[in-house]
Amino acid sequence: MPIAEGTWVRWLKAIRRRALNENPINLPSLPMPSCISACKINMKLLSILLFSILFIFPSFQHASAACHVDDEAGLLAFKSGITHDPSGILSSWKPGTDCCSWAGITCLADNRVTALSLYGQPDKPNGYLTGTISPSLVKVQNLDGIYIQNHNITGKFPDLLFGLPKLKFVYIESNKLSGPLPTNIGKMTQLEALGLSGNQFTGSIPSSISKLTLLTQLKLGNNRLTGPIPVGINKLTKLTFLSLQNNKLTGTIPDFFASFTNLRILELSHNKFSGKIPNSIASLAPNLGYLELGHNALIGTIPSFLGKFTALDTLDLSWNNLTGTVPKSFGNLTKIFNLDLSHNSLVDPFPVMNVKGIESLDLSYNNFNLMQIPNWVTSSPIIYSLKLAKCGIKMNLNDWKPKETYFYDYIDLSYNDISGSPVGLLNKTDYLVGFWASGNKLRFDLGSLKIVETLKILKLSRNLIYGKVPKSVSGLESLNLSYNHLCGQLPATKFPASAFVGNDCLCGSPLPPCKVNGK
Prior knowledge:
The chain has 6 helices and 34 strands. It has helices spanning 5-20, 35-41, 43-56, 69-80, 375-378, 423-426, and strands at residues 82-84, 105-107, 113-119, 130-132, 145-149, 152-155, 169-173, 176-180, 193-195, 200-203, 217-219, 224-227, 241-243, 248-252, 265-267, 272-275, 290-292, 297-301, 314-316, 321-325, 338-340, 345-347, 360-362, 385-387, 394-396, 410-412, 417-420, 434-436, 441-442, 457-459, 466-467, 478-480, 485-489, 505-507. The longest helix is centred in the first third of the chain and has 16 residues, at 5-20. Residues 1-12 and 22-64 have low confidence and may be disordered.
């Protein structure tokens, strides 16, 4: 099967990005079942053993080692808790067969099961499991890793985890587990990674979590957790990845980050945090690659110490109540690829950035008067998302000559003072998903605009656009062409009248019918 063209584009982006950054940050990889290194070490020994069995002892050729009876019983109990498996993920799990050969099962010495790895396929309608986690899974006593991701697993936090003494890595993510996290979660002191993101857990984060001092990854994002961040989390000094985003957490962000000398990723966005950005975050400068604090209620100015984060890849401070200017020290962020400062109350001047290439930039809805699209944006060969709505830009779009347009996914230039035509720009994009340019002075024939297959959103209201509405807009998901100078009969679309009102002479559903012979 040929690789989809869109996949090639993503590969090209990655290649270009690596070429721009000779020393990209090394992000922490997900811990994998410990068998991988052991299997590599023992491959030669395994080959010798297989040779001996097949050729020296031919009578054993048809014999097959079976996994431990407790492991088989525990796994079959897990399967019995699955009520729906439309794609046959567990079809190889059959009684009387070697469970070490079952899909998603890893075994080590003595044919004991050490890892359960079941990954759903959310892009496929039937690529997931539905059911609950059987308590009898506790029979698989040598489990050191449980990876159950992107399924429809329901129920409460699985207490059986407390009965697995060798368990180190837990990733039960993107499921539908609910209820509170157990107050005694701190008893699992052997854990090195705890990933419960993407479920429906409620209540507060238990204070006993501070006892999990071996954790390198704590991922509780995308749940419904409330209350403050427990101060005791500062005892988890080995953390490289702390993710609490998309919850309902409140209070100030604790000023305890001096303890986290190894932290690479900090995700606290989409909560209800208030107060200022804590000063101790400055201690993360040598290693931090991702700092995401957007969609909270933070106040104050952007700390100048953020300019010392020379390894920073992504900075998101959007949708807060930040004021003042962007520090000049941001010019030191030479490796940053994704910057989102949108929806604050920031003012000029905006510093000159010395980036080799920006991938995603959003400065929208502040109090900037940029006048022009910055040169460091125009020169980026890898940019795919540019959002500068209401940034005080006054320019003719015909004069803007970006170095690269091929990779653009999103462009938002709404509510500026931009004239000219976007046709030359947009007709060079092959993968554009959304274009917003309402509230400008764009003047062009709408029929000359290429509507690529990937385009889903087109917002061009309150401009000076003329011509007819092409049939190709019918494939869009969202459209607004209101208050322009368009004319003629509308093609059949699913859009409401509000998408077309205020034009010179548009007619046809959902607007009034066109006149025939002057009637």
